[in-house]
């Protein structure tokens, strides 16, 4: 994946490259979180494409580092961590900030997904609020709750995202720290790649300068040898 048309040739260009990499990674991470939270037919456009972007992004570091693959593999590991955290953190952080706590009542219960040869099921719950109105969205949970059970949930006041169990938000801070660590690791890998690239370009420049100097020395030595072998003059015979 190429962020710029050519490799950066100076500290400012390398710094700009690193900033663009992190900006693209953060955008893809947020897009994955939104796509997972919406869980709509546009999932393939909203989430799958950013998954691919986040997966391919580390390979652009090979261009930044002038062919050194070490930072690429480090960044790929951090990218996988970001993929895992993107499934939960963005939506849960949004719900933690703007969500409204509600004690809801379970209405209809359906099995949304059941793995093959397994008795487990991912349940979908239609909920009603304290005022008797149906809450927008479907709560998804692997635990079975009977009809009429009371659940503490957090709802989106704008009705964009489905309700979440209040207990799900309690573990968000841990996963957030993991995500921040992965972003920091990706940044370090990008900086290392930029440093290696600058060092490699400096080595190539010095090698090219040395080759040019040797070529000049050879040319000068060859000219001196020809001058030494050239006769000063030829005497005629009488």
Walk me through this protein's architecture.
With 238 residues, the protein is of the alpha+beta class. The longest helix is centred in the last third of the chain and has 58 residues. The chain is elongated. The N terminus is likely disordered.
Summed up, the helix count is 6
Secondary structure tally: strands: 5
Instruction: Tell me the fraction of residues in β-strands, as a range.
Output: 5-15%
The percentage helix is 55-70%
Low-confidence stretches: 1-5
Query: What's the helix-strand series?
Result: HHHHHEEEEEH
Distance between termini? 82 Å
Strand order of the largest sheet: 3-2-1-4-5
Mean pLDDT: 79
The radius of gyration over CA amounts to 31 Å
Shape: elongated
Structural class: alpha+beta
Please summarize the sheet with the most strands. 5 strands, antiparallel
Assembly type: single chain
């Amino acid at each position: 994946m190429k962020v710029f048309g050519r490799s950066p040739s100076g500290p400012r260009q390398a710094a700009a490259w690193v900033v663009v990499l992190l900006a693209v990674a953060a955008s893809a991470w947020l897009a994955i979180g939104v796509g997972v939270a919406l869980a709509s037919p546009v999932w393939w456009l909203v989430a799958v494409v950013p998954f691919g972007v986040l997966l391919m992004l580390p390979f652009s570091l090979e261009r930044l580092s002038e062919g050194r693959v070490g930072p690429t593999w480090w960044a790929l590991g951090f990218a996988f961590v970001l993929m895992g955290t993107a499934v939960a953190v963005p939506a849960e952080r949004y719900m933690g900030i703007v969500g409204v706590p509600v004690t809801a009542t379970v209405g209809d219960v359906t099995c949304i997904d059941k793995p093959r040869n397994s008795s487990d099921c991912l349940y979908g719950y239609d909920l009603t609020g304290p005022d008797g109105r149906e809450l927008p969205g479907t709560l998804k949970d692997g635990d079975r709750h009977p009809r009429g059970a009371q659940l503490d949930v957090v709802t989106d006041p704008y009705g964009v995202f489905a309700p979440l169990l209040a207990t799900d938000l309690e573990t968000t801070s841990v996963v957030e720290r993991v995500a921040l660590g992965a972003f920091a690791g990706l940044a370090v890998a990008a900086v290392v790649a930029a440093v290696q690239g600058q060092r490699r370009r400096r080595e190539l420049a010095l090698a090219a300068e040395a080759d040019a100097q040797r070529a000049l020395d050879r040319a000068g030595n060859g000219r001196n040898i020809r001058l030494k072998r050239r006769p000063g003059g030829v005497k005629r015979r009488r």
